[in-house]
Amino acid sequence: MQKGTFPLTTSSRVTYMRLTLLGVFFLCFSLLTGAEAECSFQLNPQRVVVRYGGSVEVTCNTSVSHKGMGWEASEGRVSKTNDSLITWRVSELKEWDIKPLCYINPNKGAQCLVKLPVTVYKTPDSVSISTVNHTGPMKEGQQYELQCDVHDVAPVQNLTVKWYKGQTLLHQTNFSDTENKTLVNKTVTLLIRPDRADDGAQYRCEAELDLGAEGPQPPPKINSSEPLNVEVYYKPQHSSSTETIIKDDKVMLDCSVKANPAPDYTWSSDHLNLNISSSVIKSSALSPGKYTCNATNILGSDSKVFILKSTGAEAECPLQLDPQRVVVRYGGSVEVNCSTSVLHNGMGWEASEGGVPKTFNKSLITWRVIKLTEWDINPSCYINLNNSKQCQIELPVIFYKTPDSVSISTVKHRGPMKEGQQYELQCDVHDVAPVQYLTVKWYKGQTLLHQTNFSDTENKTLVNKTVTLLIRPDRDDDGAQYWCEAELDLGAKGPQPPPKINSSEPLNVEVYYKPQHSSSTETIIKDDKVMLDCSVKANPAPDYTWSSDQLKKTITSSVKSSELSPGKYTCTATNILGSDSKVFILKSTERTTFWAIVLTGVVVAVALIIAYLIFKFKFSKNSLI
């Protein structure tokens, strides 16, 4: 035995030889099984968005050895080939629901494939706007329905229809029909309630396909309808009911007021001896006094009173009221002074409440009522002048009362609302006056949606008013609070602070809507713990079903498992309004797994070879190893 060696039996030497061969075998096995585990190829691009009738090409390439790869598709099929890069190409794509897939037959293991997501789109042939069951001018305050027709567009789930008045966006509608990929016609409606400010307004609708970042750049042209010009009929309404004018050489009483159709004018006064039909009286011969103008069209009429006063020493009625007009709460107290600086033969107040008898030795008298409850009171202060003439000044009185109650409700509906359907809300305002100062406002949360004013200037007594609002809720409105408020705007001469604004209790809206995933597919790389999360918002809460060749049992929740095999898993979420599916594509770790196996094999093989070499140098020359 040589120095530095130690004895080793023949059986031990054979064992080491076998271990060394085993290491080499394990290395080779690792390389083979790693290649088998890797079923890797890449699509470029990974998904396509293509115009109907347009061209498309996508490459599929691999870096692993195989027994053939190809493209399966109803158009542009590529037969099995031994190349490492193949191209799916269609020069004129006209199939809406095409589903091309690239497959590979690796040298070891089963065939694998990847589907190419394809979105085929087409912008609309036409977009048009019209009114439903109506022609001609609209009337202020009435409700009308506009209709937008979009012809031959796809895919509908990428379509948004927007409504505009001028440049202001009024509403937009999206579509959740993810199953339909072919051409469709869509009709969308909008309810409007025009007012006088809308006379001459232009409404239009537009159809937009939002195909995302992977769509064509620049995006497809937005298709707009021709504008719909709206003519609105509305009654005359003066900005003020009275106007005081001091007489000079030239007097002009201008009763002009906007209305559609244009109004006719009539004048009445004790100082007019002829009929006047123009909107303006211009004369230097008009006598001081009261002139009433009435403007009338087919929708109604409105009056304005001009009070013409003399100037200087010839003042016809030398009386001053303080204040010159009053705004008083129903049941409240009021007092107004009437004074003069000239000698007289008696002055007093004429009124159905609080009248003051003729007084001879005073220059100031007060009209006073402790509890005013007469709605249409018209007090006037008069004076008998020394020239045997009498004159008087009427006191404008605005009598107001805030509502007893303001309530909100739905019209002919109870329970949850359905997304996209139309509903009518109703606001009831009880016992309020005067109605011409009333504004009813609609809110969703803190957002003002609409407001309504009233032009009934004749009615000064208590009224009940009902105002409606049409809504078309979507999923974002689930849990929203609608409410209405009644506000009396009595101006600067009204009480300070202004009367309290009366609000309804909030109406809590529950909206039913179908499930709608944010994406239709999701690719997941498999690791120790795999989570396929199909959770989606819907009301009522959806039920879940799963389908896959890799699933052996029924699952009704999200899937969380480390034992799932690579493949395709389809989840469908369903409630009473509809369903929506999502496909999870589970892939193996591929190259990571490959190199882990190879590295393990290399480490084991190298360790065994080193052990072999160490023992070899320690053995004698006659050693079997």
Automatic annotation (TrEMBL):
Subcellular location per the Swiss-Prot or TrEMBL entry? Membrane
One Pfam family recorded for the sequence: ICAM_N
- Where does the chain cross the membrane? 594-615
Membrane topology, record value: Single-pass type I membrane protein
Positions of the Ig-like domain: 124-223, 236-297, 403-502, 515-575
Question: What is an annotated GO biological process for this record, any one?
Answer: cell-cell adhesion
* GO annotation, cellular component aspect: membrane
Query: What are the recorded GO MF terms, alphabetically?
Result: integrin binding
Q: Which InterPro entries match?
A: ICAM_N (IPR013768), ICAM_VCAM (IPR047012), ICAM_VCAM_N (IPR003987), Ig-like_dom (IPR007110), Ig-like_dom_sf (IPR036179), Ig-like_fold (IPR013783), Ig_I-set (IPR013098), Ig_sub (IPR003599)
Residues annotated as signal peptide? 1-37
Task: Please indicate which superkingdom the organism of origin belongs to.
Answer: Eukaryota
Keyword list, A-Z: Cell adhesion, Disulfide bond, Glycoprotein, Immunoglobulin domain, Membrane, Repeat, Signal, Transmembrane, Transmembrane helix
Q: Which family does it belong to?
A: Belongs to the immunoglobulin superfamily. ICAM family.
Record's protein name: B-cell receptor CD22-like isoform X2
Q: What is the lineage of its organism?
A: Eukaryota, Metazoa, Chordata, Craniata, Vertebrata
Which gene is transcribed and translated to give this protein? LOC113095411
